[in-house]
Design brief:
The structure is a single chain. The protein is globular, with a radius of gyration of 22 Å. The chain is built from 13 helices and twelve strands. Helix 7 crosses helix 12, helix 8 packs across helix 9 and helix 8 crosses helix 12. Helix content is about 40%, strand content about 15%. The strands form three sheets. Strands 2-3-4-1-5 form a five-stranded parallel sheet. Strands 8-9-10-11-12 form a five-stranded mixed sheet, with helices on one face. It is α/β, with parallel strands linked by helices.
Length: about 400
């Protein structure tokens, strides 16, 4: 086994903190022989698998972590590495950034089939569709998707306090009691303001002054490196997609006029819809269908948001709009476990049942007063009453 790769693995392992674990860590069945983890760049996939190794392997030589963007792989194959690792008694191979390696899925399939005693965990960009890979791994791999920090996780990360997850039904039925258990531990509104600005990507801990610049670099890396490694896009197309993202950043939330959007980036309607799909898969935007209509490549979305509130603060060229920020937060947090669509009467319909209006502390029920199962998700309040629920509490759904 190559000494450089092993030393790099040990160095990273020694530097890995195990005080805070992402929500997905406990949901993964680490005993499976082939596990795929996708997620947007910066959400913490690498840290999570290094934490698992640190926690689970007394003998570090039984495991090996490698990143396929390492220069070593320009002259060496993953298959050859697996063969040598297995020959030296290795049992668990952790492979990061698979989308940066040509024919990754075929080689992983071959490793899986040829070495029945070897366990494999691989991570890749959220753009990656495992079932569409060259060697369809969906029948072999158990796949998981990692989101950015929920507001609940951010609070745990900041305070070392444990905060439970609450299902949406629990929040709607029992929000006053739930809130009282949380606000005895923490002043929640100042923390919520911080989260909206910089709490979605765990790397904020590495320095707040450089956070927005780092997030812009993440966006560039996704579009310039990750996207072309997964989809057949040329540089002129990447420029158009970047331009589209900046247009969206300045307008969100909006109901897109695809003819106008296509014209602004000098492409046709079909390409514009395809580019929007790329941006959504990459975790940069969120497209919502109108309630009652499905989201398909043929239907234009009813509303488009940036994926999370941190992107608003990083990409917006003018002052951040409070209404946009609130709606973006609600859509981002609720999409983790629930179906969400744009509503004609309120702002959102969740699971085809609950209607939500999202607003500031002066928001009224006027728009949705006659609708069954309707609620106001209200910002700038610590606790609510009746069908008025604090907006921040929807950050406890995962």
């Amino acid at each position: 086994m190559d000494e450089m790769l092993f030393q790099n693995y040990i160095r990273l392992l020694d530097a890995t903190d195990t005080h805070f674990f992402r929500y997905l860590y406990k949901e993964i069945d680490w005993d499976n022989r082939l596990i795929g983890i996708t997620g947007s760049r910066g959400t913490g996939k690498t840290t999570m698998i290094l934490q698992h190794i640190k926690n689970s392997f007394v003998d570090r030589s039984k495991a090996l972590y490698v990143s396929l963007d390492n220069i070593w792989f320009t002259k060496n194959s993953l298959l050859a590495l697996a063969d040598r690792f297995h020959a030296y008694g290795g049992t668990h191979l952790f492979i990061d950034e698979v989308h940066r390696y040509p024919n990754w899925s075929i080689e992983i399939k071959n490793i899986y089939d040829s070495y029945p005693a070897l366990h494999i965990v691989f991570t890749g960009s959220s753009i990656l569709e495992i079932y569409k890979s060259n060697a369809d791994l969906s029948r072999r791999a158990i796949s998981y998707h990692l989101l950015g920090l929920s507001f609940r996780e951010f609070l745990s990360f900041e305070t070392n306090e444990e905060f439970p997850v609450f299902a949406l039904d629990e929040i709607l039925a029992n929000h006053q009691n739930i809130v009282s258990t949380i606000i005895t531990k923490i002043k929640v509104l100042p923390e919520f303001k911080k989260y909206m600005e910089y709490g979605y990507y765990p790397f904020y801990k590495e320095g707040l002054k450089s956070y927005n610049l780092r997030l812009q670099n993440v966006v560039n890396t996704i579009l310039e490196n990750d996207l072309p490694s997964v989809e057949p896009v040329e540089y002129p197309t990447i420029i158009k997609i970047k331009k589209m993202l900046m247009i969206i950043s300045s307008l969100v939330p909006f109901s897109p006029n695809l003819t106008s959007l296509s014209s602004e980036i000098e492409t046709n309607r079909a390409s514009a819809i395809k580019y929007l799909g790329y941006l959504q898969k990459a975790g940069l935007i969120r497209m919502l269908p109108a309630h009652g209509s499905g989201m398909s490549l043929m239907n234009k979305p009813e509303k488009i948001y940036l994926d999370n509130t941190n992107l608003i603060h990083s990409l917006a060229t003018s002052n951040v709009n409070g209404g946009n920020e609130r709606e973006t937060f609600f859509a981002n947090q609720c999409t983790a476990n629930y179906k969400i669509s744009a509503s004609k009467q309120g702002d959102f319909v969740v699971d085809d049942r609950y209607v939500f209006e999202v607003g500031g502390r002066n928001k009224t029920f006027k728009q949705i007063k006659d609708i069954k199962d309707s609620f106001v998700a209200m910002d700038d309040i610590e606790s609510g009453f009746g069908n008025k629920i604090p907006l921040w509490l929807f950050g406890f759904t995962y």
